[in-house]
Amino acid sequence: MNRQRFLVLMAAALVAICGALYVSTQRNLPRDPHGLPLLPSLATELNSVTSLTVRKGGANPTVTLHKQGEQWTVAERGEYPADLPKLRKLLLALSDAKIREEKTSNPESYPILGVEDPAQPGATGAQIELTAQDGKHDVIVGKSAGAGNFVRRAGEKASYAVEPGISFEAEPRYWIDTHLLDVAADKIQSIEAKPAGGPAYAVRRVIEPKPQPKAAGPSATATPAAPTTTASAAATPAATPASAAPTTGTSAGAGAATAASTAPPSLKFVLEGAPSGRQPADSQTLAPSPTMLGGLTAEDVAPAGDIDFSKPSMITMTLADGSALTLTGTVVGDKRWIQVAAPKDASLSAKTQGRAFEIASYRFDAIFRPLEQLLVPKPQPPAAKKSLPAPKP
Fold this sequence. Notes:
Blueprint: H1 3-28, E1 51-55, E2 63-68, E3 71-74, E4 80-81, H2 84-96, E5 98-102, H3 110-113, E6 126-132, E7 135-145, E8 148-153, E9 159-163, E10 179-181, E11 188-194, E12 201-208, H4 230-235, H5 249-262, E13 266-272, H6 283-286, E14 296-297, E15 300-303, E16 313-319, E17 324-332, E18 335-341, H7 346-352, E19 355-359, H8 361-367
Antiparallel strand pairs: 1-2, 1-6, 2-3, 3-4, 5-9, 6-7, 7-8, 8-9, 10-14, 11-12, 11-16, 12-13, 15-19, 16-17, 17-18, 18-19
């Protein structure tokens, strides 16, 4: 090998070595994660997500949402339907989260940010795990950080501050579909009630009889027409058409009768079961409140067998379409629970059968009214007159 060729080979080797050193150095340089998505592939996998779990304060899931066929359900609530808008909101928040800056990689500092393992005692963060078609996404969401949160991808050491914020709840009751019933008050025809602590009664919508028109007769104030002479008759213009003739008492009475016969029937509510000596309240008081079943929502759901219904209140409503709806209620501590039975509504029956629903106390009170609320209040006894002191001598 001549000297010139040797020098060429040496130069090529030095170039290769320098290039390798440069590439290696670039690989080891820290990359700026600012603006990168927290979960890069989630945006393209949103429609393929099939389950979501939240762990907070323990190794076991606090709540599990999963897709059963075409329906999302809450496992900890007996596979009750889940609230899809809330689920969608959380998935979009995770997909939209961008890294603002990198934080600590020291596990001893994780509790400061709330990104320690949720199974550790005293942990404040929560771990959210998604299962999608192409794999899992697992992130620990910690404390708030400005307009976002501190987070750490499970299995990694680095933690970050991300924006926008990721808000969610770990309680299973938060994730249920709260819509329960929506029955307008004007659709209720009758209510048969059996309160837990009082007598039974019924409230029914009835048609009031139409007012009878008064008998028509000659007007008492009619003045007889003065006799008309031939001359005056000749001077009188042509006869007034019948349509312009003055209205007599008889025709006015006929008009009133026609108006009465075409008036719409009047509806009111009546009470059955009033005690002897007591008067029912007026129709407006007896009528069901618009807040009775209009837009009724559930605050929680549980297996019916887990709730004590041994002393129930019950109402059965007949609706305008002929269907019936039965609600059974009970009070357990400071909570109000109901069961719903709708034999002619297959979809509602599938949703409510075997389940009890917690509702707001004011909605419960509007549904299960005691008989005393539907009666005219008893008159107050007269106050005893105070005797005046005897005058001093």
